Amino acid sequence: GRLNITVAQAKLVKNYGMTRMDPYVRLRVGHCVYETHTDPNGGKNPSWNKVVQCLLPQGVTSMYLEIYDECSFTMDELIAWAQVPIPQAVMAGETHEEWYPLNGKQGDGQEGMINLVLSYTKVPMNPYGMYAGGTMAPVMMVPSTAAPMYGMRQYAPVPVYTQPPVPVAPPPQFNEADLKQVEEMFPNMDKEVVKSVYEANRGNKDATVNSLLQMCE
């Protein structure tokens, strides 16, 4: 299925360095890595409102995230990190908004908090390795353990999940008037974020407003 992650904002306990930090988030789901944009001078209260959509590999029940301070003349500095379990409620179709504790130099769970909104959409795969919509599951050729044939090593196809393609699903039918009303209620929030939360709530206007209010707190 497809996991939708909104990396909203963070509250960090310390600003490392002489100037305000320029934080960004690096997120790993399975073998895939995603990054938000940098929040210039975000300091201890960075905000991203970045929406990440990724296929969730079978058996993956958590994701790993890191917050870095972007540096101009040296390597980017790792500020905080966390392993975030994917709640069962999300896998059941609910939208889940939560503040997660961050680990860092201050200690486990002592570096601050990060605000994430998670939702999940099922994307079935048939026995032929095809995702709904006709997209092939990722396959990589690896050496077989069988004896070489005619002096040449055999290669066998093995499914992998390094860079799964995002299936093209038909767009859901939502009420544009409701979406416009929600956007007008939150004029300072990016319209793409509002739309993503609206879609994650399956067009439920009240649930969307509640989720956005929690993100604004």
Automatic annotation (TrEMBL):
It comes from the Eukaryota. CDD domains: C2_Tollip, CUE_TOLIP. Its main location: cytoplasm. Keywords: Autophagy, Cytoplasm, Immunity, Inflammatory response, Innate immunity, Repeat. It holds the Pfam family C2. SMART domains: C2 (SM00239), CUE (SM00546). It is found in: Cytoplasm. Residues 174-217 form the CUE domain. Residues 1-100 form the C2 domain. GO terms for molecular function: ubiquitin binding; ubiquitin conjugating enzyme binding. SUPFAM superfamilies: C2 domain (Calcium/lipid-binding domain, CaLB), UBA-like. One of its GO terms (cellular component) is cytoplasm. One of its GO terms (biological process) is ubiquitin-dependent protein catabolic process. Belongs to the tollip family. This is CUE domain-containing protein. It comes from Cuerna arida. The lineage of its organism: Eukaryota, Metazoa, Ecdysozoa, Arthropoda, Hexapoda.
